Fold this sequence. Notes:
alpha/beta; four-stranded parallel sheet; three-stranded antiparallel sheet; 16% strand
Amino acid sequence: MSVLVRTAPESGADAMRLNQHCYCITLDRDALGAAIERETGDPNFYAEYVGTRSNLFSNVPVFIATSALADMRRVVAAIEAATRLPNYRRTVLDWAPEISRPDHGPIGALMGYDFHLEGDVARLIEVNTNAGGAFLNAMLARAQRACCLEVEQNFDLHSTEGFDASVLRMFQNEWRLQRGTGALKRIAIVDDQPQEQYLYPEFILARQSLAKAGLHVIIAGPNELAYKGGQLLGGGSAIDLVYNRLVDFSLALPEHEALRAAYVDGAVVVTPNPHNHALFADKRNLTLLSDRATLSGWGLSD
């Protein structure tokens, strides 16, 4: 992972030169370790969970051209516009699993759009409903170090103010889109065998970020959940919202039955959920999203 800074080179050629020759910004691993340990409240966290994952963070930055970043934003806006077209929705939901068809409201927290760069051109390779990295990158940004004043002045190396507040608003919005009223109190971050996941450190950071806002957050495997009396239970208490990191996008596996039943009944807010995956991330959708004539015929503007 590398941090995305706000000020970027103007062209792909400039970005390539910087990537080949600029080492002015480096990762201060001591600062990163201290920041993560402070955030988690665990003096052994960095050594146990980050130091053992040698490829989790890069020591040097990756630069991209401002034009490529603008292209990425345009592609994301176009995809989100396409998913609102009635014909697009009918087509993708027809080939999606049955569980994906009802829309409970949430639009998908921390969605990811993955691009490959070819010079100045950014090409979408997939949309990812269980994307990881946001919390780790926010922490990474706080630990950057520049070796010269010019770099400090030209690159916004610590542009993470407001990150925690933005994440909180995102989850609260997902809650309101389904529930309308009431207060979000208890969240479960759910993945299969979460402590064995490579991005488990991020689950910890997510828990800490949301806990600072007064939410009760647990990290759980689906086998630790139960659906009883119209409530999804985790750790003996009712779960309001599940931050879903599973790759079983239709919740079809037997071990996900409790979560599936609660989701189908609308007893818990799940984000991202099967409906979000069906609209955005099913790989078959790329055949439509790359078909200019069909999208234009369905009403998507140039």
